[in-house]
C-alpha cells in the first residue's frame, strides 16, 4: 500500500481497485484505516451495526449498575446492549478490538488498568480518539476488597491519575483533572467485581459511576473464539439486553468480536454508548 492509498481512505477507492486487492491486502488496508481513525470518521455507514444512541450517566442518578453485582442496572430497552471491555490496553489484542468496533461504527467503554495505560498511552489515546469512553479499573488490578480502605483508595486514585495522564487531553469529553481535581472519566469497575460498602460510598462521593455487568462471555476461561461466540449469543438471547463484559486483553475475544458484531446487526440488536454526564459538555 502506498501512502496515498492510506491517506485517501477506502471510501475514495473506486470499487474496481478494491476488488483487485488480495484478501490479505484488503484486510491490512481495513486494519490501517480503522486504527488510524479514518474509517470511524465515515460513520454512520450503511450496512454497519452503528451506535443507536448515547446515554449520559452520573453518580447522582445511577451510582452503580449491573445486575451481576447490584439490584439495578441501566434503563435499556429490549435488544439494547452496552459493550464494555476490561483489562486493557493490551499491546497485541486491543488494536484488533478497536478495528472491529470501527469497522461496525460501534462505540464502547474500556475499563483500563492504570499501569497498562501508563505503559501504552498511545492505545488509550486511540480509544479516546475513536470516541470510546474510558473508565477506570484500578492501578494494578488487585482484589480491593481484601486491602485496607486506605490502600484500596490509593490504588484506585493512582489508576485514575495514570489513565488521565495517558489520555493527555485527547478526549474532549473529559473533565480537566489538573484544573478541577475531578477524575478524567467518572466510570469505575472493580477488579473481580470485588467491592465493599465503604469503597462504594467513597466512589459515590467522588462522583464515580460504578459498573458491574449484566452478562458476560466468561472470556477469562479457556475456550475457542467459536465457543465464546456460542456462549455470549446464547446468554444474550436469554437476557435480551444489558451491559456486556468482555476483555480486550483476550485474543479469543478479539478474534470473535467481528463475528459477534455481525450477529448483533443481523438480529436487530442496538448499541447504546454510555458517556459521563458533565456540567459543561453533556456527551448525550
Ligand atoms: Zn479486570
Q: Please count the helical segments.
A: 12
The topology string of helices and strands comes to HHHHEEEHEHHEHHEHEEHEHE
How many domain units?
A: 2
The main sheet comes to:
7 strands, parallel
The proportion of residues in beta strands is 5-15%
Distance between the termini: 38 Å
Average predicted confidence as pLDDT: 84
Structural class: alpha/beta
The molecules bound to the chains, other than polymers, are:
zinc ion
Shape: globular
User: Helix content range of the residues, please?
Assistant: 40-55%
Number of DSSP E strands: 10
Radius of gyration: 19 Å
CATH architecture of the largest domain: Alpha-Beta Barrel
The CATH class of the largest domain turns out to be Alpha Beta
Return the CATH topology of the largest domain: TIM Barrel
Describe the structure in brief:
This protein is an alpha/beta fold.
What are the SSEs and their pairings?
Blueprint: H1 3-8, H2 15-20, H3 23-36, H4 38-41, E1 53-57, E2 64-65, E3 80-86, H5 94-103, E4 109-112, H6 114-119, H7 121-129, E5 133-136, H8 149-167, H9 177-180, E6 187-188, H10 197-205, E7 209-211, E8 215-216, H11 225-239, E9 242-247, H12 251-266, E10 270-276
Helix pairs in contact: 3-5, 5-12, 7-8, 11-12
Bound molecules: zinc ion.
Amino acid at each position: 500500500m502506498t501512502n496515498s492509498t492510506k491517506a485517501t481512505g477506502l471510501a475514495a477507492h473506486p470499487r474496481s481497485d478494491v476488488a483487485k486487492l488480495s484478501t490479505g491486502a484488503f484486510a491490512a488496508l481495513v486494519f490501517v484505516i480503522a486504527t488510524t481513525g479514518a474509517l470511524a470518521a465515515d460513520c454512520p455507514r450503511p450496512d454497519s451495526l452503528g451506535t443507536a444512541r448515547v446515554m449520559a450517566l452520573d453518580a447522582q442518578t445511577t451510582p452503580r449498575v449491573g445486575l451481576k453485582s447490584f439490584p439495578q442496572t441501566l434503563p435499556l430497552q429490549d435488544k439494547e446492549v452496552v459493550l464494555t471491555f476490561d483489562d486493557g490496553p493490551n499491546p497485541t489484542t486491543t488494536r484488533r478490538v478497536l478495528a472491529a468496533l470501527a469497522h461496525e461504527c460501534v462505540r464502547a467503554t474500556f475499563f483500563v488498568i492504570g499501569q497498562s495505560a501508563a505503559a501504552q498511552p498511545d492505545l488509550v489515546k486511540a480509544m479516546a480518539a475513536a470516541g470510546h469512553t474510558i473508565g477506570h479499573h484500578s492501578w494494578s488490578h488487585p482484589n480491593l476488597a481484601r486491602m485496607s480502605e486506605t490502600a484500596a483508595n490509593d490504588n484506585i486514585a493512582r489508576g485514575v491519575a495514570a489513565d488521565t495522564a495517558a489520555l493527555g487531553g485527547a478526549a474532549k469529553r473529559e473533565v480537566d483533572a489538573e484544573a478541577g481535581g475531578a477524575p478524567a472519566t467518572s466510570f469505575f469497575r472493580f477488579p473481580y467485581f470485588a467491592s465493599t460498602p465503604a469503597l462504594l460510598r467513597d466512589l459515590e462521593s467522588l462522583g464515580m459511576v460504578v459498573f458491574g455487568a449484566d452478562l458476560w462471555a466468561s472470556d477469562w476461561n479457556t475456550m475457542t473464539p467459536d465457543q465464546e461466540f456460542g456462549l455470549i449469543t446464547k446468554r444474550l438471547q436469554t437476557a435480551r439486553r444489558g451491559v456486556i463484559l468482555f476483555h480486550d486483553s483476550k485474543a479469543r475475544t478479539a478474534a470473535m468480536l467481528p463475528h459477534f458484531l455481525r450477529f448483533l446487526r443481523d438480529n436487530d440488536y442496538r448499541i447504546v454508548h454510555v458517556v459521563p454526564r458533565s456540567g459543561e459538555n453533556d456527551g448525550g
